[in-house]
């Protein structure tokens, strides 16, 4: 299907000339001789681009442009102007026009401008699609009152540039909330930069945040931009800020108050334009009392507080979460989507979920991999989620001590050892493999 171009001009010769050129290049051409007719054609024909003359009787090009942007804000409009009206054309671009062409029209310039505008529109549509997919991917799944309250808080806080402090237990989805806030902020197309304050050694944290110049310290073999600089015009997410040392807290506070910072070893002052979001699984007010967190920084960060509920406080969301995870894992493995029986689902809803949504996700992933049947039943649910399964001690009389075959005893020991490790780690295969020094493949083989 060829792109459709709407030409809006009161001069018949211009329309005929452009019609011939564009038709020869495969474009579908639509005509309009004034602004009112153009608006009707946009609604009825849905063109891909508009070439709009500035000077027309009645509704002129600028007025028409403004009306077009009301009914089709993403439709690219290229203004056509005669000599002496360049200033008006520049004003038009500020009002939403993609570009402008000057009479007499250059065929080459016309074609280049149209193709650039169409490519720009395609890129915008791709960005909108990717943003939509990103929002879907990072959205908090659920319909419970606790999640609905969280949605409202996110939607209210997102358009502001005020600092936000997200609190909640591990595994509740604090990073998802931060990403959603960014996607619905006034900076969705700008960078979203994360720094995990708990994962970076204390001696490296300042460099990670503010950057450093070459030679600032022994390991600084080249210049490095910090997270504040990388997040410029976008959002900086300080994850688990409660683990940040008190000295770095003071430096962040100074940067936030002055909106400036310097790279380590540098003398140039850099200006900061970031939307700051922080999170913590710790009680920061208690940390203030014990002297582990600065009170002034807490108030600077806690302009808008958002608390993410525990899974045990939104258990009615578990069926939807399980279905979402099963759908995701089936796509990853290119296999058939599995289902849980009602009894198995009820069993999961009765659990405490100390690891919250992350723990549930890990268990569902384990079940989707390890259960051969398309239907996951109560008997497939492992310990500690299934109280009906008797816990076996590693040296139980029914286990290995009364086994006559040493090789078989070793095999049974290893299998039960892995089962119990998985139970303690909430079904996290990667974590267990790392802790016991083996591969995920080996763990899966022993569980079959």
Description:
This protein is of the alpha/beta class and 448 residues long. The chain folds into three domains: 4-130, Response regulator (Rossmann fold, 3-Layer(aba) Sandwich); 139-309, P-loop containing nucleotide triphosphate hydrolases (Rossmann fold); 314-447, Helicase, Ruva Protein, domain 3 (Orthogonal Bundle), CATH 1.10.8.60. It has helices spanning 12-24, 35-45, 61-71, 86-94, 107-138, 145-157, 174-183, 202-210, 227-230, 246-258, 284-289, 295-301, 318-333, 342-349, 356-370, 406-424, 429-436, 440-447; strands at residues 4-8, 28-32, 49-53, 77-81, 99-102, 164-167, 192-196, 211-212, 224-225, 235-239, 260-261, 270-271, 275-280, 304-307, 339-340, 375-376. The strands form five sheets. The chain has a five-stranded parallel β-sheet, with helices on both faces. It is globular and about 100 Å long. The two termini are 53 Å apart.
Features:
5-stranded parallel beta sheet, 448 residues, 16 strands, alpha/beta, Rossmann fold, 3 domains
């Amino acid at each position: 299907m060829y792109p459709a171009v709407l030409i809006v001009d009161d001069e018949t010769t211009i329309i005929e000339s452009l019609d011939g050129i564009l038709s020869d290049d495969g474009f579908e051409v639509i005509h309009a001789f004034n602004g009112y007719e153009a608006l009707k054609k946009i609604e009825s024909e849905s063109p891909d681009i508009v070439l709009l003359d500035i000077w027309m009787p009645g509704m002129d090009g600028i007025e028409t442009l403004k009306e077009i942007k009301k009914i089709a804000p993403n439709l690219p409009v290229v203004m056509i102007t005669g000599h002496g009206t360049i200033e008006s054309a520049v004003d038009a671009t500020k009002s939403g026009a993609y570009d402008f062409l000057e009479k007499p029209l250059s065929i080459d310039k016309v074609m280049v401008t149209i193709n650039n505008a169409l490519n720009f529109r395609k890129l915008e549509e791709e960005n909108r699609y990717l943003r939509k997919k990103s929002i879907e991917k990072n959205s908090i799944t659920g319909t419970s009152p606790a999640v609905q309250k969280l949605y409202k808080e996110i939607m209210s806080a997102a358009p502001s540039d005020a600092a936000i402090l997200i609190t909640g237990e591990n595994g509740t989805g604090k990073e998802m909330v931060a990403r959603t806030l960014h996607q619905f902020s006034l900076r969705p197309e700008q960078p979203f930069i994360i720094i995990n304050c708990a994962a970076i050694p204390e001696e490296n944290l300042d460099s990670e945040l503010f950057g450093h110049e070459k030679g600032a310290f022994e390991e600084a073999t080249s210049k490095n931009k910090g997270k504040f600089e990388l997040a410029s015009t976008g959002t900086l997410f300080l994850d688990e800020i409660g683990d940040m040392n008190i000295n770095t807290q003071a430096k962040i506070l100074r940067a936030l108050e002055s909106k400036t910072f310097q790279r380590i070893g540098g003398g140039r002052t850099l200006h900061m334009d970031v939307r700051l979001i922080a999170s913590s699984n710790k009680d920061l007010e208690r940390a203030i009392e014990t002297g582990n967190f600065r009170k002034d920084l807490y108030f600077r960060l806690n302009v808008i507080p958002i608390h993410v509920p525990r899974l045990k406080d939104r258990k009615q969301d578990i069926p939807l979460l399980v279905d979402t995870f099963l759908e995701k894992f089936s796509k990853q493995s290119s296999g058939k989507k599995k289902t849980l029986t009602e009894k198995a689902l009820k069993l999961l809803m009765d659990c405490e979920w100390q690891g919250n949504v992350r723990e549930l996700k890990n268990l569902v992933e384990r079940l989707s991999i390890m259960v051969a049947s398309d239907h996951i039943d109560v008997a497939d649910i492992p310990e500690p989620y299934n109280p009906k399964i008797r816990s076996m001690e590693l040296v139980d009389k029914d286990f290995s001590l009364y086994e006559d075959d040493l090789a078989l005893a070793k095999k049974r020991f290893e299998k039960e050892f892995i089962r119990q490790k998985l139970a303690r780690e909430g079904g996290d295969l990667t974590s267990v493999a790392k802790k016991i020094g083996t591969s995920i493949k080996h763990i899966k083989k022993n569980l079959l």
